[in-house]
Amino acid sequence: MVAPGALWLGFWVALPVVATFILSMTDYNVFNAPKFIGLDNYIHVWNDPVFHKATWNTVVYTFWTVPVSMAIAVVIAVALNQKLRAQSWYRAAFFLPQVTATVAIAMVWLWIYNPQQGLLNNALAIVGIPGHAWLESTDTALWAVSLVGVWQGIGMKMLIYIAALQNVDEALYEAASIDGASTVRKFWSITLPMLKPATFFVFVISIIGAFQVFDQVYVLTDGGPANSTTMMTYEVYRSAFQNFKMGLACAQSVFLFAFLLVMTVISRRMTKGDES
To answer: Mean pLDDT over all residues of the chain?
Structure first.
């Protein structure tokens, strides 16, 4: 009964993982046979200042996009869990960026950030604030990319929180109302604690998603300017498909895997290992 599932798991998950670890210890450029070089790729990654920059950018991107998008998503979910007219339309509108191709979204934001005709600079000009080349400055490029990540990530998180809110017992809110609890008090004392399992799930998948950001960086900035927006996954892409250093790309992927594993364990500890 489990043979088809085990075969699928072995072929599509276990085999690529094992191949990644093996190739990470080789000098392989696609055109020639792999040559075993031991831990040289790992030493190169460990001492590579560009990969250090990519790692730091990924951590900063994750640090801002995950909590901000989660906070916005839970507020929107609570608001859209009330009895509203056209409730489904509101939910669809917030979820739409999630099902839209990232490349299409990035193209729209390229226009928004355009220094000459962009929507953002035109809006700022109305209130007398000078425009800025948001994606061409090392000071603002990473924040501009992060804003796109926050905006695009709200939909899925909101949907998970709305599903979780459906299971919160209304009797708890009725009892709190009888005791005179305010709406804010009920949110902090009932809603957020009851959303704890959903929050852990959203937190983990958000971190994994943030560490895998690639499309919007590729379209918006191509990792620039001066590597100010390059990410770990983008460096893996550069090594594998621009420089044809497959062994080095596999070593970078192993570092990314280790990062995600550590972050997952930390998030598990932060939620105190709630089995529910």
So the answer is: 89
**Pairwise CA distance, residues 161 & 195, whole Å:** 7
77 vs 68: CA distance, rounded Å: 14
Integer Cα distance of 112 and 119 in angstroms: 5
Tokens at 180, concatenated: 């005179």
Checking if the pLDDT of 227 tops 70, the result is yes
10 Cβ neighbours under 8 A, 6+ residues apart: none
pLDDT tens for each residue of 111-126: 999 988 889 999 999 9
Q: Are 76 and 150 in contact (CB under 8 A)?
A: no
Q: Which helix (H) or strand (E) holds 86?
A: none
Interatomic CA distance for residues 164 and 137, integer angstroms: 41
Single pTM value for the model:
0.86
Dihedral (Cα; 21, 47, 65, 189), 10-degree rounding: 80
* Amino acid 271: pLDDT: 63
pLDDT band at 47 (very low <50, low <70, confident <90, very high): very high
**To the nearest 10°, the Cα dihedral for 179, 184, 185, 186?**
70
Handedness of CA 258, 49, 219, 71 (dihedral sign): positive
The runs of H, that is alpha helices, within the chain are 3-9, 15-23, 40-47, 49-80, 87-99, 102-112, 119-126, 141-165, 170-178, 183-186, 192-194, 196-211, 215-220, 232-237, 246-270
184 has a pLDDT exceeding 80: yes
